[in-house]
Amino acid sequence: MSEGFDLIVLTLAATLRVATPLILCAMGGLFSERSGIIDVGLEGKMLMAAFAAGTVAAVTDSAWLAVAAAILASTAMALLHGFACITWRGNQVVSGVAINIIAAGLTVVLGTAFFARGGQTPALEPEARLMPITLPGAESLVGVPVLGPIYRSLISGQNVLVYVALLSVPLTWWIVGKTRFGLRLRAVGEMPLAVDTAGISVSWLRYRAVLLCGLLAGIAGAYLAIAQNAGFSRDMTAGQGFIALAAIIFGKWRPLPAFGACLMFGLLDAVAIRLQGVRMPGLGEVPVQLIQALPYLLTILLLAGFIGRAGAPRAIGVPYEKEH
Amino acid sequence: MGNRHHAAAHPSRRALRALFRVRPESGAAPAIELRGIDKSFGTVRANRGVSLSVAKGSITGIVGENGAGKSTLMSILYGLYEADAGEILVDGQAVRMRGPADAIARGIGMVHQHFMLVAPFTVLENLVLGAEGGAVLRRGLAAARAELARLASEYGLSVDPDAVVGDLSVGEQQRVEILKVLFRGARVLILDEPSAVLTPQETDQLFRILATLKERGVTVLLITHKLREIMAATDTVFVMRQGEVVAERRTADTNPEELAELMVGRKVRLTLEKDAVATGDVLLKAEKLDLTDSRGVKLLDGVDLELRAGEIVGIAGVSGNGQTELLQILSGIRRPTGGRLQVRGRVIDTSHPTDPAEMRTLGLCHVPEDRQRQGMVAPFRAAETSILGYHKLKPFTRRGLLDHVATTAHCGLLMERFDVRPPIPALRSSSFSGGNQQKLVLAREMDRTPRILLVGQPTRGVDIGAIEFIHRQLVAARDAGCAVLVVSVELDEILSLSDRIVVMFGGRIVGELPAAKADERTLGLMMANAHA
Amino acid sequence: MSAAPRRALPPWAEIGLLPLVNVALALITVGIIVMAIGVDPLRALNLLVVGALGSSEAIGYTLYYATNFAFTGLAVAVAFHAGLFNIGGEGQAYIGGLGAGLCVLALDRFLPGVIVVPLAILAAAAFGAAWAAVPAWLQAHRGSHIVITTIMFNFVAAALMVYLMVNVLIAPGSMTPQSRGFEGTRMPAMHEVLAALGITVAQSALNLSILLAIVCCVGVWAFLWHTPWGYALRTMGHNPDAATYAGNDLKKLTMIAMCLSGALAGFVGVNEILGVHQRLVLDFTAGYGFAGIAVSLMGRNHPLGIALAALLFGALQQGGAELAFEIPAMTREMVVVIQGLVILFSGALANLPRPWLQALLARVRRA
Question: Do B388 and C225 make contact, defined as CB atoms within 8 angstroms?
Answer without folding.
Answer: no
